[in-house]
Amino acid sequence: MKNELPKFSSEKELAEWIGSHDTSEYMDDLELVAEEIPVRRTPLVNETLGLLLNPKELDAIKRVAERKGVPYRTLIQTWLIEKLQQEGG
Q1: For the chain, which terminal residue's Cβ has fewer other Cβ atoms within 10 angstroms, N or C?
Q2: pTM for this entry
Q3: Is residue 65 exposed (0-12), middle (13-18) or buried (19+ Cβ within 10 Å)?
Q4: What is the distance between the alpha carbons of residues 19 and 13, in angstroms, rounded to a whole number?
Q5: pLDDT, position 2
Q6: Cβ–Cβ under 8 Å, residues 71 and 65
Q7: For the chain, what percentages of helix, strand and coil (3-state, to nearest 5) are there?
Q8: pLDDT tens track for 22-59
């Protein structure tokens, strides 16, 4: 027996449901929309930070970044953001 797509009272409710369910069973019920949706990107605003590191530590960071295939500055930024999230910031 085929599952029927539930009815939703809002787009938010639909989005939450889609984010938590496998929709492959409902593909035949979904409507193909050919309308183009314009996307406006929000510009990122960054500040430069001077950071003094011991050359050995910086070399170690660069080696890890190389193994991961990312620029070392990106790795440092990622680590800082992860730590901030852990600290509840």
Answers
A1: N
A2: 0.52
A3: middle
A4: 10
A5: 65
A6: yes
A7: 50, 0, 50
A8: 888 888 777 888 888 888 888 889 899 899 999 999 99
Residue with tokens 């409507």: 31
Sorted by where each begins, the domain ranges of the chain are: 55-86
Look at residues 74, 47, 44 and name the one whose alpha carbon lies nearest to residue 61. Answer: 74
Query: CA-CA distance, 17 to 19, in Å (whole number)?
Result: 5
| C-alpha to C-alpha distance for 73 and 85, rounded to whole angstroms | 18
Contact 25, 2 (CB under 8 A): yes
Conformational region of residue 88, where left means phi above 0, alpha means psi within -120 to 50, and beta covers everything else: left
Instruction: Give the span between the Cα atoms of 29 and 8, in whole angstroms.
Output: 14
